[in-house]
Structures are given as C-alpha cells and as structure tokens.
Protein: DUF3109 domain-containing protein
Amino acid sequence: MIEIGRTILSHAIFDQHFVCDLFKCKGACCIEGDSGAPLTPEEAKITEKEFPKFEKYLPESHKREIKKQGFSMIDSDGDLVTPLVNQRQCAYSFYDNKGILKCAIEKAFFNGETTFRKPVSCHLFPIRITEYKQFDAVNYQELDICKPGRDCGKSQKVPLYKFLKEPLIRKYGEEWYKEVEIAGNYLEDQKQSRLA
Structure:
C-alpha cells in the first residue's frame, strides 16, 4: 500500500496495465453489477438539475424509469446510486449506432451542453474509492468484463494510474497526482533494479 495525503493506494493502481477497449467490452460497466453507479449527494443534485440537457439522448423506457424511481436512489447497501433499468442497466446510458453503451450525461458534456462530465465513480472506473473517517482507500476492482481493457493496457504498456490521470486529478487535485507519479516512477525503478 502507498500512502499519499489522506489516501491509501493499493499496489495494483501502479502495477496493473489498463486502457478501456470499448469496441470489445461494449461499455459493459454500464450494465454489469448489482447496483447503479455510486453518486455523491452533490452529484445527485447536479444530475437532477442538468437532466433536461441530456434526457434527449435517452430511450423513452429509461426516462420512464427515472420518472418512476427518481434521479437517484438508495440501494440495498444504503448507498446513493443512479437508478437502473430492468435492475441491470444504468438509466443514464444508451446504445450508440455501433451497439456500444454510452453515457447520456457525458454525451451532453462533449457536445458542450453541460459542464458536468458524469459521476466521478464512473470516470474513475475500474478504480473504486472507499471513504473512511481517517482516509480514502483507492483500489483497483478487477472484473472479467474489463479483460479487454487489461489486454489493451498491457499491449500499450499504460499503467492504470496513468490511464485514469484526468479523473484522479478531478477527484484529488494536481498536487496529489504529482505525488502519485513520483510514487509510480519510484516503484517502476525498483522493479527494473530487481530485474537487472
């Protein structure tokens, strides 16, 4: 484990290679799992406020579910999450013309219609953060659906922390990320020394 500020990062953040391969996984992270995407209370409010800006990208069945369940909900673990359609698919997702699941919020963001990109938990995936009173545990969640991402990352030699630079900075800031880079370079040097 690596301690930086009030975070404790697992070694997998540095050791695991990863680059999302949407053409192979088809956006499976938007449909696989027991619950919706984790939200902060602030993100739940923003999602509700910004909904008119991205609802046009959603199928009618998703809009009906959001109207029925609400813009956010509490899951069986007591966590604030996005609503689901058919108890599986994130209500804020849609299939593009290539059959890939995409985020309607993010589509509106890239089209310049909102300044909210998407929930930070989605942006950080497959990194998962568990917040405790004294520290945040920053871990890699290894899932079968992300095998294409691991293969792609390995072929391109991109460590997970580098692939997720933007959302990590969004969550913890530039200075924190600089320390992550220092730790990553140190661990890589140690690894090369052992191999020499």
